[in-house]
């Protein structure tokens, strides 16, 4: 597996986002299936695994810890704080809460270390900036965790270039994680440039556009009732039908390049810069193997130009998040 630099670490050029195994796209997979995917990724050369306290309200960190802790020396471990499940009503039902207060960050980290069965988390992200808390305070708490040896490096997720610069002034930021793919170009406005100026790696989540660029999801009515894509404007029946019209030409480019649609999406990202590390997620080993094959896809300048012109912020219909989701992120928008 090709390697890319992420702060002090060298990680696989394509790493694994673990969210899908426990969260967001319907019912979580069985523990056995999750173990198969995680171990297959490790055996295939994946050396960074990305999880979060939010995913399955701790269940994903537990899964990763149960399966991978015995192999801890073989990979870089990334997790996130600042957005967790909280029993707000006292009825035992957890709801998603953004909370960047220093005391919450410290408590979340202690719980994560136990679930992950490790003494230290290599890369710990602030999952969302809590806009009720100065970014300097949240990053200061993360810096305290570095000093205490609980985490090794600090990351931020879904932040603007301005917020990144404020945070970096408090403590060096190792990575920014934000959605980036052919159909989500927001990082290109300012964040990618800011990352490069500051020497910050860029980790791209949802690099195959939440499945759209795999060209397999044709009917959004088949999505699970709890699938988060049902609340995303791009996946509304009307918008998705319009977006599907982009796929025949996209699939033709993939065929010409000798790769699958998912590999084309990932290869396009890899070609955008050596500082970009995609973290696709999957629940199936065969999809994992397909994704990892993208490291061997070489795209011509013509293919890159054609796919770039075909799928971008001007040709895709619908916002990536609904109104609430857009309020919660801190990224520049087209």
Write the layout of secondary structure elements.
Layout: E1 3-6, E2 9-12, E3 16-17, H1 31-43, E4 48-50, H2 59-68, E5 76-81, E6 83-86, E7 95-98, H3 102-116, E8 121-126, H4 135-147, E9 151-157, H5 161-170, E10 175-179, H6 191-198, E11 201-205, H7 237-244, H8 247-257, H9 261-270, E12 276-278, H10 285-292, H11 301-310, H12 323-328
Parallel strand pairs: 3-4, 4-5, 5-8, 8-9, 9-10, 10-11, 11-12
Antiparallel strand pairs: 1-2, 6-7
Q: How is this structure best described in words?
A:
The protein is of the alpha/beta class. It has a domain of 233 residues: NADP-dependent oxidoreductase domain (TIM Barrel), CATH 3.20.20. The chain is 37% helix and 16% strand. Strands 3-4-5-8-9-10-11-12 form an eight-stranded parallel beta sheet. β4, α2 and β5 form a beta-alpha-beta unit. α3 crosses α4 and α8 runs antiparallel to α11. The mean pLDDT is 97.
CATH second-level architecture of the domain at 3-211 and 274-297: Alpha-Beta Barrel
Q: For the record, what CATH class of the domain at 3-211 and 274-297 applies?
A: Alpha Beta
| Alpha-carbon distance between the two ends | 35 Å
Tell me the CATH superfamily of the domain at 3-211 and 274-297: NADP-dependent oxidoreductase domain
CATH-assigned fold name of the domain at 3-211 and 274-297: TIM Barrel
- Which range does the strand content fall in? 15-25%
**Please, what is the oligomeric state?**
single chain
Structural Rg: 19 Å
The class by helix and strand makeup works out as: alpha/beta
* Total number of beta strands: 12
Give the low-pLDDT segments: none
Query: Major sheet: order of its strands?
Result: 3-4-5-8-9-10-11-12
Shape: globular
What letter string, H or E per element, gives the SSE order? EEEHEHEEEHEHEHEHEHHHEHHH
């Amino acid at each position: 597996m090709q390697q890319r630099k992420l702060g002090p670490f060298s990680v696989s050029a394509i790493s694994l986002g673990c969210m899908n195994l426990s969260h967001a796209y319907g019912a979580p997979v069985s523990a056995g299936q999750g173990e198969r995917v995680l171990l297959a990724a490790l055996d295939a050369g994946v050396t960074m695994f990305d999880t979060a306290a939010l995913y399955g309200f701790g269940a994903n960190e537990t899964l990763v810890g149960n399966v991978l802790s015995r192999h801890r020396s073989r990979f870089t471990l990334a997790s996130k704080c600042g957005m967790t499940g909280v029993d707000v009503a006292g009825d035992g039902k957890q709801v998603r809460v953004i909370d960047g207060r220093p005391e919450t960050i410290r408590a979340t980290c202690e719980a994560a270390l136990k679930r992950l069965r490790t003494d230290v988390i290599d890369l710990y992200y602030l999952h969302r900036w809590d806009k009720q808390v100065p970014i300097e305070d949240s990053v200061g708490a993360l810096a305290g965790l570095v000093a205490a040896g609980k985490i090794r490096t600090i990351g931020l997720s879904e932040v603007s270039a301005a917020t990144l610069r404020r945070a970096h002034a408090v403590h060096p930021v190792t990575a920014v994680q934000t959605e980036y793919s052919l159909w989500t170009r927001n990082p290109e406005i300012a964040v990618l440039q800011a990352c490069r100026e500051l020497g910050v790696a860029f980790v791209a989540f949802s690099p195959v556009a939440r499945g759209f660029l795999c060209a397999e999801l044709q009917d959004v009515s088949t999505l699970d009732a709890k699938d988060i894509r049902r609340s995303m404007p791009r996946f509304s029946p009307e918008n998705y039908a319009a977006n599907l019209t982009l796929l025949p030409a996209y699939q033709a480019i993939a065929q010409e390049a000798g790769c699958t649609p998912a590999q084309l999406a990932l290869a396009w990202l890899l070609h955008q810069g050596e500082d970009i590390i995609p973290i696709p997620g999957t629940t199936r080993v065969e999809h994992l193997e397909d994704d990892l094959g993208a490291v061997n896809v070489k795209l011509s300048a013509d293919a890159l130009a054609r796919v770039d012109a075909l799928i971008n912020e001007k040709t895709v219909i619908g916002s990536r998040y609904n109104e609430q989701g857009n309020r919660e992120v801190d990224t520049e928008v087209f």
